[in-house]
Amino acid sequence: MLIKQVWTNNGGRNFFYMVTCPKTAETLAIDPIDAEMCLEIAKNHGWNIKHVLNTHEHGDHIGGNDKVIKETGAKLLGPAKAEGRISGIDEELYDGSIVKIGTSGEFKVLETPGHTPIHISLYGQTDNTPHFLCGDTLFNAGVGHCRSGDPNVLYNTFNNIISDLPDETKIYPGHEYMDNNLAFTLDREPDNPLAADLLKELKNQDLDNARITTLGLERQINTFLRLEQTTIQEGIKKEFPDLPNELDKKTVFLKLRELRNNW
Length: 263
Ligand SMILES: [Zn+2]
Prior knowledge:
Structural class: alpha/beta
Strand order of the largest sheet: 1-2-3-4-5-6
CATH architecture: 4-Layer Sandwich
CATH class: Alpha Beta
Shape: globular
Low-confidence stretches: none
Strand content: 15-25%
Distance between the termini: 39 Å
Bound molecules: zinc ion
Order of helices and strands: EEEHEHHEEEEEEEEHEHHHHH
Oligomer: single chain
Mean pLDDT: 97
């Protein structure tokens, strides 16, 4: 299977994804917010959109569904128990469900709530490279906000699920927020040279060919994946002087999320 990241250039800085089987041209469109763009890409490549999949309920992820489905007759895949949040789901996906891409690939569904109460991500491999299509759970150098979710639940997703994924895993988020997120990392961890170098490197980046990070790199530049770093912990204690001297990872995560909300 081939994974195409599509930069929408919209106000929300959304990415959406098209995953295709080179043998059958069967294609999965994931959160295709820009329906016109999605249909045009499919037409230009001769791809046949058989399924649309939503990671979660937000309008900037489901807003293109109707048009893509109307034009292609695709079936809608979405998280289980999403009635009232996402309409018209033809097939509900559970933790561990398999989504096949033609005859050449498949993803395993992982439940990754926190950004919203119900949220799924996809994990799959091509050759020996793992891929994680994670909606608004994990961003490059950051994590999703929890305005309609719960940061405690998001922490559990990171601590119980994402922590198990290998360093080589390529990351495909729902938005492009890398500059801002790296600036936040540097605000919390000014002595992180890799984050500083990367921020410089991104200055003139072409978002149609945006940098795809790996989880291994995220573990070095994403402050939310570096909860045990002394600089980060000392910074949190300074901002929240009433906290105990020994901080657990969850407290650090929650306080980072709180700081990022107002940053
Ligand atoms: Zn969202």
